[in-house]
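Here is the promised in-class demo. Please do not try to memorize the tokens; focus on the logic of going from shape to residues.
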């Protein structure tokens, strides 16, 4: 098997058939042997029915269908797809045709041409999003690259093709909170980035709201850096130093008789400030603790209700 396409689907009823047809047009003939792995991530529409129809109507194609028991998220869907992938190369691609199969061909050619390369990742050349969004994203990547040991590329997506070995390495990372971009960087391997232009979504709407993105960004942060925990030490050290200096000042003032009882404002401000800082730090520790709690339960990353493969 040359190539496995992993396609996470959440409410993509109007896209799956067109996605399949487009891939057939573009890939067949060019790539000898490839399979589709559709993961239905608890869609609330007719995605699963459409997938079953697709499988019935095209026995000549190699279709693997995975049905989750509920919505586990794209990251979990990618994980499930990787587990079923049999190809030498594995591609993660969206079902909404924003990511063109032509780019997959380009990725495969690049991997064929250079044995040293393990992964070809596509990044969006031009983004269709507001300035505010671009600003937020660039700030996030600046920050995370500063405090993390691994390198995050700001515009890289999870639209990528990699060799089987890298797929195995990713499956080996069994953490429940999955931040794909971080995982892709963390496992290492030689990655080359190529530009692509994201098309408009074919049908349906994006499942990413600003709130979801913010949560995802926090996930990335908490999964790949423990810097916030260290921040407590730094802040503590800083305020202690300031306190010692101020202590000396107060002692001198006392000795020289410069203290007239006032300073109400100073005390109130200091109490509030220190209380605030302590609560924030406590919250941060709580976030990590919560993750340890969830990971310690060793819950499965996803639950597959049904899995259909093709005849070998
Ligand atoms: N997706 C998924 N589970 C989810 C949300 C999204 O499998 O909970 C899939 C979705 O069907 C699509 C891909 O992930 O194939 C990217 O989602 P979307 O198009 O909503 O994101 P965007 O392209 O706006 O980043
Ligand atoms: Mg999309």
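The designed amino acids, position by position:
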């Amino acid at each position: 098997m040359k190539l496995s396409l992993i396609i996470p689907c959440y409410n993509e009823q109007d896209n799956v058939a067109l996605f399949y047809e487009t891939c057939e047009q573009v890939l067949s003939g060019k790539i000898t042997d490839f399979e589709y792995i559709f993961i239905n991530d608890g869609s609330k529409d007719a995605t699963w029915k459409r997938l079953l129809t697709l499988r019935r109507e095209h026995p000549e194609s190699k279709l693997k269908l995975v049905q989750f028991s509920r919505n586990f998220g794209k990251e979990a869907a990618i994980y499930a797809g990787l587990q079923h992938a049999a190809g030498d190369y594995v591609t993660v691609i969206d079902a909404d045709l924003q990511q063109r199969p032509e780019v997959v061909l380009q990725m495969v050619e690049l991997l064929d041409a250079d044995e040293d390369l393990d992964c070809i990742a596509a990044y969006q050349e031009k983004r269709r999003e507001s300035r505010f969004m671009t600003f937020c994203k660039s700030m996030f990547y600046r920050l995370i690259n500063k405090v993390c040991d691994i390198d995050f590329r700001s515009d890289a997506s999870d639209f990528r093709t990699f060799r089987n070995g890298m797929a195995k390495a990713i499956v080996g990372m069994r953490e429940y909170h999955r931040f794909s971009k971080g995982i892709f960087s963390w496992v290492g391997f030689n990655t080359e980035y190529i530009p692509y232009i994201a098309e408009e979504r074919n049908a349906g709407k994006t499942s990413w709201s600003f709130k979801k993105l913010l949560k995802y960004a926090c996930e990335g942060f908490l999964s790949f850096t423990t810097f916030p925990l260290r921040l407590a030490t730094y802040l503590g050290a800083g305020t202690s130093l300031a306190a010692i200096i101020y202590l000396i000042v107060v002692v001198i003032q006392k000795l020289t008789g410069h203290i007239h009882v006032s300073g109400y404002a100073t005390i109130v401000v200091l109490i509030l400030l220190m209380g605030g800082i302590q609560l924030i730090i406590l919250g941060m520790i709580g976030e990590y603790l919560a993750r340890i709690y969830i990971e310690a339960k060793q819950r499965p990353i996803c639950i597959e209700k049904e899995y259909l493969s093709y005849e070998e």
